[in-house]
Known about the structure:
Elements: E1 8-10, H1 18-34, E2 37-41, H2 47-61, H3 65-69, E3 81-83, E4 89-90, E5 93-94, E6 98-102, H4 132-158, H5 165-170, E7 174-183, E8 192-197, E9 203-208, E10 215-219, E11 222-225, E12 233-237, H6 239-244, E13 254-257, E14 264-273, H7 287-290, H8 308-319, H9 321-327, H10 329-337
Helix pairs in contact: 1-4, 2-4, 9-10
Amino acid sequence: MSALNLPILDLSLLDQGPEAASRFRDELRAATHDVGFFYLTGTGVTPDLEARLLQAAHDFFALPEADKLAIENVTSPHFRGYTRVGGERTQGRVDWREQIDIGPEREAIPDADGPGYNRLVGPNLWPAAQPELKDVVTEWHDHLTGVARKLLRAWALALGAEEQYFDRHFGDPQTLIKIVRYPGKDDPTPQQGVGAHKDSGVLTLLWVEPGKGGLQVERDGEWVDAPPVPGAFVVNIGELLEYATQGYLTATNHRVISPTFPDERISVPFFFNPALDARLPIIELPEELASEVRGVTDDPTNPIHATYGENALKSRLRAHPDVAERWHADLLAARAAS
C-alpha cells in the first residue's frame, strides 16, 4: 500500500514476461478485493495526448454559454451533451459541476422497440464552435478501450476464468466519457462536487488534471483522499463486477469535494461497460477465492441489476431528472408504480 491511501499498479508488467504478468494479476485481484480502487500506471497514454485532452476541456468550458447550451442534454433523450452547473444530482442532492457526456455514436432506437434502456442509444451532441473536440475524444476513447480490455483479460485470469471470459460476454461495449469541470466554491464548508456513489457498470478509468485533489474514497467507514498521481489513472470497479463475483470484488463509494474559489478542477472519467442487453454471468471462482465471497451489497434504495442496461438506466434517470421528466415520463411512472 502506498502513502497515497490506494495501491499503485503498473499495467506494463503484463508485457514483461510470465512472472511479472502473474505478479500484476495478483496485485490486481488483491486491490479490487480489498479496496475496489487503485492507481494504474504504464498505460501508454502519452503526455501529449493528456495535454491535448486537457486543452480541449478548457476550450470547451470557455465557450460562450450560448454555444454550450446549444447542445444541452435536456435536448437529448439519450442523456448526451452538456449539463450546466447544478444540472446533475447524486442521491437527490445537486452536484456542483458542469460537464459534457459522450457515448457510442449510434442511431436512435424507436421508443416502442424493446426495453426502456434502449433509449440510451443514440447520437452525441458535439459543439459546432469546437470541431476539434471530437477528434481528441475519439483518440482518447480508442486508447482507453484497449487499456480496459487488457485489464479485463488480466482480471479474468486472476479470478480463475479463461482469458477471454469478459470479451465473450461483453458484446458491443457501451462506453461513456464525461469531461467534467468542478468550479471553485467560496463557501466556508466543503461542497458536493459529486456526491457519494458507486459506479453502475464494470470498470472506470479516471484521469484527473495534475495537481488537483478533491477525490475521496471510502475505506473502512472513513473518507480518504485520492490525489492525482502523474501519469496514472485512478481505476475502480462498478456494481456489475461486484455482482458477477458475488461480492468477491467490491464496488466502493467515492465522492468529489469542490475546489476552493478561484481554483477549478478538470477530470475525465471513462466508463467501460458491456452492451446494454448483456448479462454478466456469475463467475465460478476457485475454491480459495470463493471462500472469501461477501455477497452483493444489499441496498433496497439502489438495487443491482444483472442486465447492464437496467443498471445504466437506473443511474441516468436519477442523475438527470430534468431529462427524465421531459423525455421519459412513462418510465418514471412505471417505476413509481412498481
